[in-house]
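Action item from last week, closing it out:
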Amino acid sequence: MLDVEVIADPAAAEASLDPVRARLLAELAEPGSAAGLAEKVGLPRQNVNYHLKALERHGLVELVDERRKGNVTERVLRATAASYVISPTALAALQPDPSRSPDRLSARWMIALASRLVRDVGELLVGAAKARKRLATFAMDGEVRFASARDRAAFAEELAAAVTGLIGKYHDESADGGRSHRVIVAVHPSVKNESGTDRKEP
């Protein structure tokens, strides 16, 4: 089972967004059968089987075991991932395009960049899996508390200068066998909990 799977197919995305099927995917973080799931979610087994077949058809669940019980074969399934992210690719012509209005101070442009990140890395993951290779990536996640808007602006300027300097130092357009990498840096306010304190990731 993968930690995260990126869903690019529109039909698979639609299947995953159905409330019943989303619940079944969550339950199938651990292997389970239609009979066991029916008891957990309070639906008839026939109804659960219908939804499981749809999820399996779109590659969101996989068969892990078959158990013979009298004249019946019980199929044990498991979700292909612990969690799922829907790629902007599933939206086809509606997916965000960061090149339309590049503005490093725009929150909407940041969302467009993040959407492209999900799309591109999702596609790269598929290629790496087919080639049975590890995808070379690097990411940072941190938090900084600014005393003032002036400090925040100064931080952004220094960060931009530092990243620009690093790119200038290591970028080699003529390198034989070199491969281009995309660099994205984002700074945004932390999301607050209902109590009003900064949300901490688990």
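Closing note: The first strand starts at residue 2 and ends at 7.
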